[in-house]
Amino acid sequence: MRKLLIFFLLLSSTYSFAQDSTYTRKIVDTLTSKTFWGRGYIKDGMAKAGDFIALNYKSIGLLPMGNDYKQTFSYPVNTFPGKMIVELNGKKLKPGVDFLVTNESPGLKKKDKLVQIDSLKFQSSSDLVLLLKNKLTWSVATEVSEITTIELNRKTFKAIPNKINVDVENKFIDDFKAANICGFVKGTQFPDSVLMITAHYDHLGGMGANTYFPGANDNAAGIATLLSLAKYYAANPQPYSIGFICFAGEEAGLLGSRYFVENPLIPLSNIKFLINLDLVGTGEAGMTVVNASVYPKAFTMLNEINNEYKLISKINSRGKAANSDHYFFTEKGVPAFFFYTQGGISAYHDVYDKPETLPLTRYHSLFNLIVKFNQKLQAQH
Q1: Where's the Peptidase M28 domain (predicted)?
Q2: What residue spans in the chain does CATH classification 3.40.630.10 cover?
Q3: Which helix (H) or strand (E) holds 178?
Q4: Is 70 exceeded by the pLDDT of residue 338?
């Protein structure tokens, strides 16, 4: 009877906490603000975001995995902190909306005529290329090419480009300093058994002095969900320890998670299961689980929970994929799922991934699914 009462109390606290999404929304709004400038490589965006998450860990009451919450590392990155001027046919274009300078481009200052190579490509010389695109998406480069490439949004600039004026400044950083933010809630019965929840907090940063990429769905939503779960587990310690890692360097090639796996702050064998959250701000069309076919028993258990509690409309199965921070853990034998939701906004790696258009449609359902899945995992001890 006592065990049954504790079980129902736990379910009640899970439900009531999950319904309060004010904290989650506040985290998304904060991380996507100008203060953090796309959580990237100029204006100290990533460093500020890491400090903010560490402060939240402390206020929540998480214990650090190491000497403190930060696991520091470094890597090379190409950045664009200065001038970002592109004029076509005498018309000044808006960064992020009308054009992008590709992430590996060197800086360049020149005026020239454009020669059409084919229907989508124009060139002024061997060091400058213009490409027409239906959608502008940006990324992060860890090296610099020899050619400056401008991608032009053909939907906003419909004329044939024939004259170009470029004044773009890049800065290559050999050893950009970053940090994974790592904490945990100690288990009450089996503290050496760990259920890990992860998400990356870095995004693309900014392009020039006036344009930044907010990254609401990618991945402020994942960080906000992780911190909400951290609050819940700090208030409701489990038999297992619950770990939380917010990774840096994901957009540059899963660099933060790879560094952690190569330099683990806890034995990887202690991690009984890992859930990675990336692009979880929607959910109208359900969600997908990467590694579902790799761990079929765990995926069946996840679906049984979902069917019982009617949480997510559809859970799609996907196989192994090196598309987020779960990957290197799986390669080292750590069982891991990567959750991402579908439906709603289509903004991705662009300036339109904003908090005001992020619905957080199935936040409550995803929160409860994770909590109940972790309960089931622990019951198997």
Answers
A1: 180-372
A2: 2-76+174-379
A3: strand 171-185
A4: yes
